[in-house]
Design a protein that fits this description.
Layout: H1 2-21, E1 27-37, E2 44-49, E3 54-58, H2 62-66, E4 72-80, E5 97-107
Parallel strand pairs: 3-5
Antiparallel strand pairs: 1-2, 1-4, 2-3, 4-5
Length: 113
C-alpha cells in the first residue's frame, strides 16, 4: 500500500512538472513604428501597430529600439497582457507588453504622421 501511494505521489509530481513547464504560447509578431513614451529618464519604447494597437517593448538594449524610431519595423516576442483591472501602470501601454525576442527594420522611410 505504501508503494502504491508513493508511486501515485511521484506520478502526480512528475506530471505537474511536465505540464507546468510547458510553454505558454503568447507569441506575437507586430509591424509598426517605434515611439518613445514618458520623460527622460523614465522613457520607454512602444510600438504602434498599423491597426492602432500600442504595446510597450521590453528588450535588453532599449537604445537599439530607440534608434529605430520613425522606421517601420517588425517585432517578434511574447505578449504579456496588462493587469485585469484595466489600469495602465507605470511604463505600460494600453495593449500590454511584448518581451522582444527579435526585431528587424522593414522600411527606412520615415513615418509621415
Amino acid at each position: 500500500m505504501k508503494r502504491i501511494i508513493s508511486f501515485l505521489g511521484l506520478s502526480l509530481l512528475f506530471s505537474m512538472m511536465i505540464f507546468g513547464a510547458s510553454k505558454n504560447n503568447n507569441s506575437i509578431s507586430v509591424i509598426g513604428y517605434v515611439k518613445s513614451y514618458g520623460n527622460v529618464p523614465f522613457n520607454y519604447p512602444c510600438i504602434e501597430s498599423l491597426d492602432g494597437h500600442i504595446y510597450t517593448l521590453s528588450y535588453e538594449d532599449k537604445s537599439e529600439l530607440f534608434n529605430t524610431q520613425g522606421k517601420r519595423i517588425q517585432v517578434e516576442g511574447e505578449l504579456i497582457k496588462k493587469s485585469k483591472k484595466n489600469e495602465i501602470g507605470f511604463m505600460e501601454s494600453k495593449d500590454g507588453t511584448i518581451n522582444v525576442t527579435s526585431f528587424k527594420i522593414i522600411s527606412e522611410i520615415e513615418n509621415e504622421n
